[in-house]
Amino acid sequence: MKNNPFTYLDEIVQLALREDIESGDVTASLLPENARSKTRVITREKAVICGIPWFNHVFKTLDENIHIEWFVHDGDHVEPDQELVRLDGPTRPILTGERTALNFLQTLSGTATTAYEYARQLKGTKTKLLDTRKTIPGLREAQKYAVRTGGGKNHRIGLYDGILLKENHIDAAGSITNAVSEAKKRYPEIPVEVEVETMKQLEEAIHAGADIIMLDNFDHAQMKKAVIITAGRAKLEASGGFDKETLRAAAETGVDYISVGALTKHVTAIDLSMRFLD
């Protein structure tokens, strides 16, 4: 499984800067060319910090002479008004990169914080928290890194590293059995997951040799029954609108995984602030 969150770091940062700066930062150009400044970034709320490599790359792309001093690391838990980082260097590029750098840091910290809040609901159970492909376009690997930073686990990264046979795939193949058979024949090295909506489909997926079975919108009684029927012959993943209040009860049914799209698609950015130092 491809799992390097920095594969597209430079490409993503360049794109983010280009959409903000385009032909030039006309406001920063009003400042003296030789001006230098010291700034600091603080958080206005509790958070799990994530996104430092993207933040750093923004400023190093704009000007290698900007000195960056961090007081935290990705994965650290921080409190309101805590100082995270200081910058010292040419004023123009610091101001030009401020919003882009903070966008990365606040978004990925928001993802990591959400993942942490969900993952802690599963402590003491065997169930692992998974993300989904419902990510912000262009930030797939960054957000999946943020989920891991917050204590969650990654589902497949993309369409290339895991097979997930959903309703439309199964309909097109003719049956679960046909779809799994073709997947095993063509990609024997890739895990095969099947989404099921009924107990009958569950039993067919088990007999077909699925490695993982996704229980789509099963209630708690159905999940418990599915665990008994499956008896360890495949891993079970529960999916379907779970939130922090319902996660624990679902885990206690004995499923192996719970996938939550909200980890990456319902992101609330962390409130950060950059201010000049006297």
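the 2nd protein, sequnce then structure:
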Amino acid sequence: MSSSLFDRAATRMDYFADLGESVRLAMTEDLGSGDLTATLIQPDRQAHASVIIREEAILCGTRWFDAVYEAVDPTVRIQWHARDGDRVLAGALLCELSGSARTLVSGERAALNFLQSLSGTATVTARYVAQLAGSSTRLLDTRKTIPGLRRAQKYAVKCGGGFNHRAGLHDGILIKENHISAAGGVRAAIYALRATGTQVPIEVEVETLVQIEEAIAAGADMLLLDNFSLAEMRQAVTLAAGRVPLEASGGFDFDDLPAVAATGVDYVSVGALTKHLRAVDLSMRISGFA
């Protein structure tokens, strides 16, 4: 497994494959049988709207935002002033919309929910990436995502400068503690998977230095160092001697990242990128009623 594996995986991943279904579900839970409050607005009334961001952030989610209004009323016109992956400053005008006033109001919450949530993931990812600046260590996401939004959040991680680990259990192999226990050991687990003829690279979660040597000898393609201390990470790097890439996960926090990178590990994976979600502060102002 080369260090470009995750680059190739990201290239193959279709981030937008379930976009339509995600939007459909969002609109179903929000609109249901119809927007009761919007009946206050005459159906033929037109308006203009502006989306403003109230804090510095990395923008992400414009396609989901657009898809909400496409689903509600395809005649709504949207003009973006920034693109996914752009760093935008507090007070920036992100986009302008024009069309039916009822439509603008009815789509507002669902559209902003996607935009603020995905921008939140992209923004925190960029903060973690900055902590690794100057090193060769790359930041990976995990499967600890919001249910139903995995592809979207992995896209947000990419927009924030991170890299994607496997999309799910179907496209990557990671032998973890419970698998090792069930199979009867590290070597037995690797051999059993190799016997299936799989061509997918095999990553093994290891907890000790002894397991590192055992996993490499059995033909593992990559190792995940589970909750290793900094001293143990340095020992692992020395022991692996470049034979397989090493991924560090657990046992460190945001402020520890420069020290983790300094040990020489190839990757760090952080569940907080996608599970500890804090949405960015956005607002939509509707005006120019006609």
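The two ends are 60 Å apart (CA to CA). Residues 202 and 221 are 5 Å apart (CA to CA).
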